């Protein structure tokens, strides 16, 4: 690892501290180095707050060192006025002579303009450092701007014999949820929910399990609840309609008198391209990531449309023998881990 890679690696570590509070902005990490010593560092504040470069420069005690320093950042500094002034201008104003960047910003308002502004001001700019790692760190932001849709994560738990739910007669005899995984695994799911902007489930999952779709076993901000309900079968007795968390219902029902006040509704055509329609709505609403938790049909809708990026699959130790079989996908296994008695396999869509 060379010196540039060393400091960009530090930037990536810093950037993780801002997730997911920065969404829909990227969580950038920034380091300022003088004579091979870090003199300042920062990461993006929660949405609407200061960018990473602003926080890093503000942290430098001796500002006179900036005119001899190198600024490292995971992402190209912005060049436009948004909720904050352009970071490229701040770098120029503080006479920072060298800038090292992981990847370019694909946002239409940036897209190389930040680098061009820096170079036009006489700054030495180096790009493409730890590009693969920076792309992985910013995968949700990049997917949103490059593919015009959110980063889609699929999650399910299956028994050792390949079922995600028991047979109907078994469920009818015991209406309470059948847990496939251990309590530590369920806590991990709540951690994952806290890291994403939204969580999606279908009608059957709500009617059979009555999930809260919150992060009560973790800390942070609850994701926006997204629910497919074609004919509004879900009534106000279910947790997803309790109005404690922002919720969007996707439906075909045009009679707004059936809508519940405080719940958002979106009309889609359930007869075709459901996954793509949903992605279009998510993009319109600036949702960078969606955690798809079920049920089987909802998950398979994204698999069949090839609109997924990552899948996290739990396998427990129980057997159902009969029931709803687990979804099938073709992806690259990139990680396997164990929590108590459960196995988690992580796949990416390659």
From TrEMBL:
Pathway(s) it belongs to: Cofactor biosynthesis; riboflavin biosynthesis; 5-amino-6-(D-ribitylamino)uracil from GTP: step 2/4; Cofactor biosynthesis; riboflavin biosynthesis; 5-amino-6-(D-ribitylamino)uracil from GTP: step 3/4
GO MF assignments: 5-amino-6-(5-phosphoribosylamino)uracil reductase activity; diaminohydroxyphosphoribosylaminopyrimidine deaminase activity; zinc ion binding
Domain of life: Bacteria
GO annotation terms (biological process): riboflavin biosynthetic process
Cofactor(s) required for function per UniProt: Zn(2+)
Positions of substrate binding: 193, 213, 216, 293
Name of this chain's protein: Riboflavin biosynthesis protein RibD
């Amino acid at each position: 690892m060379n010196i540039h890679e060393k400091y960009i690696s530090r930037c990536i570590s810093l950037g993780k501290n801002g997730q997911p509070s920065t969404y829909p902005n990227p969580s950038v990490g920034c380091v300022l180095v003088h004579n091979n010593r870090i003199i300042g560092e920062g990461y993006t504040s929660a949405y609407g707050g200061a960018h990473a470069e602003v926080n890093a420069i503000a942290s430098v005690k001796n500002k006179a060192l900036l005119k001899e320093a190198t600024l490292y950042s995971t992402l190209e500094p912005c060049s436009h006025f948004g909720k904050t002034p352009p970071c490229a201008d701040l770098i120029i104003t503080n006479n920072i002579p060298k800038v090292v960047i992981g990847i370019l910003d694909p946002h239409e308002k940036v897209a190389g303009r930040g680098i061009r502004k820096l170079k036009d001001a006489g700054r030495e700019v180096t790009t493409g450092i730890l590009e693969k790692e920076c792309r992985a760190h910013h995968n949700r932001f990049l997917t949103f701007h490059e593919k015009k849709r959110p980063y889609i994560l699929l999650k399910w738990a299956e028994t050792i014999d390949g079922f995600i739910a028991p047979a109907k007669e078994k469920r009818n005899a015991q209406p309470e949820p059948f847990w496939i995984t251990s309590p530590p695994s369920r806590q991990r799911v709540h951690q994952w929910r806290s890291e994403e902007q939204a969580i999606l489930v279908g009608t059957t999952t709500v009617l059979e399990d009555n999930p809260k779709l919150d992060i009560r076993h973790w800390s942070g901000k609850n994701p926006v609840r997204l629910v497919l309900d074609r004919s509004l079968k879900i009534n106000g007795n279910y947790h997803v309609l309790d109005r404690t968390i922002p919720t969007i219902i996707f439906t075909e029902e045009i009679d707004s008198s059936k809508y519940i006040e405080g719940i958002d509704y979106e009309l889609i055509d359930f007869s075709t391209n459901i996954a793509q329609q949903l992605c279009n709505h998510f993009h319109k609403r600036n949702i960078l990531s969606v955690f798809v938790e079920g049920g089987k049909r909802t998950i398979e809708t994204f698999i069949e449309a090839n609109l997924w990026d990552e899948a996290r699959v739990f396998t427990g130790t129980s057997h159902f023998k009969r029931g709803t079989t687990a979804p099938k996908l073709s992806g690259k296994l990139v990680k396997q881990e164990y929590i108590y008695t459960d196995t988690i396999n992580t796949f990416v869509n390659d």
